[in-house]
Amino acid sequence: MPVGLIALALGGFGIGLTEFVIAGLLPEVAADFHVNEAAAGWLISGYALGVVVGALFLTAAINRLPRKAALLGLMVLFIVGNTVSALAPTYTLMLSGRVLAALAHGAFFGIGSVVAAGMVAPDKKARAIAIMFTGLTAANVLGVPFGTLLGQALGWRSTFWAIAIIGVLATVGVATLVPKGTGAADPADPAAQGGLRHELRAFRSGQVWLSIVVTVLGFGGMFGAFTYMAFTLTEVSGFASSAVPWLLILFGVGLFAGNALGGRFADRALDRTLIVVLSGLAVILAVFALVAGNPVGAVIALVLMGAFGFATVPGLQMRVMNYAPDAPTLASGANIAAFNVGNALGAWIGGVTITAGLGYTSPLWAGALITVGAVVVMVFAASAARRSRARAADGSAKTSSETVPVG
């Protein structure tokens, strides 16, 4: 695999760390700025909103730039955002820094997916995307616990300084290791000829929309359950609160393994892999709800939930790009936004079930049902794609037979 993928993964690591580490530092941040828990929570939800906006609108705004230049600009924005957070004298500036960094998040993964896929042979594209997203999974496994420990030991601002330094290293890596390739400003690139209007044509494809719906439902199912996992593990499985961070590291190990394997299998059979993995995720969520009262069963289910949940990521990202071959950038960014919409949707539905008094396993049941919806849409999309290919093949065969000279 090209070394440029390592630079993209490092950028993904820093971005993932920015997104997730704040959860472990919220008490310190809230105390420092003298705000309540609800206000501190906006540092998470505001970030998620920034990801969606950046994935769609910032990606569209920089669409005509060469993709390597766009990635470098996004990393600079990321560094600025985290520097603002580290220096922020007020809560408002802290939130502003979070939003700036989030704008880079969505666009970086959207454009980075296209760049990663373009650096390898066609039969390795999903694996290349998986390598870039390895940085995101590593942020969960290693970055979050160590970033939290650093913030607790030296103050929460030290964590954001560390993230800014990671951003600088990733920027240097992208500048030196990622090949220039064909950017959106290259006259040979179709996207350059039509600009944003050309990219928007991707959304004429029904398969692009079906892929985005699968992303929303598939990730909504997993993260709806994951959002309330600390409550499930402590109130149902019987673990102490102090054990939760270490259990979540095991979840991160599952993410890491699932991402790698999902990319490998998606390169072999994309739609079949997504159907199998999403079906497996629905089953695991339901089984998790049934065995949550058993600590050993809960741990096994937690790891498998992470593995099957993140095994969908390379395939989902690859699928939406496959059906927008002449305009992949904005479609890729839209799918990154869809991941975050799914996160918000799943968290909301999970919260509704708990509020309704259905217990702390109810988000797991809700997640399983949402994921079943993703399976249904994916089966429909795969069937429609097969019929379309069959019609195209029949049309090609008829055309060939009609052009054969007679006698």
User: Oligomer, anyone?
Assistant: single chain
Which segments are poorly predicted (pLDDT under 50) over 5 or more consecutive residues?
A: 182-193
Mean pLDDT: 84
Query: How large is the count of helical segments?
Result: 14
Write the SSE topology.
Blueprint: H1 4-33, H2 37-61, H3 67-87, H4 91-118, H5 125-154, H6 156-177, H7 190-200, H8 206-227, H9 229-236, H10 244-268, H11 270-291, H12 295-322, H13 328-355, H14 362-402
Any overview of this molecule?
It is a single chain. With 407 residues, the protein is mainly alpha-helical. The protein has 14 helices and no strands. It has helices spanning 4-33, 37-61, 67-87, 91-118, 125-154, 156-177, 190-200, 206-227, 229-236, 244-268, 270-291, 295-322, 328-355, 362-402.
Brief sketch in words of this structure:
With 407 residues, the chain is mainly α. The protein has helices at 4-33, 37-61, 67-87, 91-118, 125-154, 156-177, 190-200, 206-227, 229-236, 244-268, 270-291, 295-322, 328-355, 362-402. Helices cover 84% and strands 0% of the residues.
Comma- or semicolon-separated keywords:
407 residues; mainly alpha; 14 helices; 0% strand
